[in-house]
């Protein structure tokens, strides 16, 4: 995710996002479905990274819907 700064908290659940912005981050090898960003409040878009747990939850929920 390209952004200018990070808050350290996931904009979806509010827990620590373990962002490695500016270094080696867990999310570098992940695919974020475009739809997940609809869950992020506008004021957090591009400023807060989604955590691994929310990404996994979202992907699982999408898989179950198909």
Summarize the SSE layout with pairings.
Blueprint: H1 52-65
InterPro entries: Cys_rich_CWC
Pfam families: Cys_rich_CWC
Protein name: Cysteine-rich CWC
How would you sum up this structure, described in words?
- It is a single chain.
- The chain has one helix at residues 52-65.
- The chain is globular and about 35 Å long.
- The chain has 66 residues and is an all-alpha fold.
Keywords:
single chain; 66 residues; mainly alpha; 21% helix; globular
**What percent of the residues sit in helical stretches (DSSP H or I)?**
10-25%
Percent strand: under 5%
Report the structural category: mainly alpha
Number of strands: 0
Largest sheet: none
Summarize this, please?
With 66 residues, this protein is mainly alpha-helical. The protein is built from one helix and no strands. The protein is globular.
């Amino acid at each position: 995710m390209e952004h200018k700064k990070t808050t350290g908290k996931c904009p979806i659940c509010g827990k620590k996002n373990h962002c490695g912005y500016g270094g080696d981050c867990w999310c570098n090898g992940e695919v974020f479905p475009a739809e997940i960003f609809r869950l992020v409040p506008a004021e957090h878009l591009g400023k807060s990274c989604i955590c691994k747990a929310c990404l996994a939850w979202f992907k699982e929920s999408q898989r179950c819907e198909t």
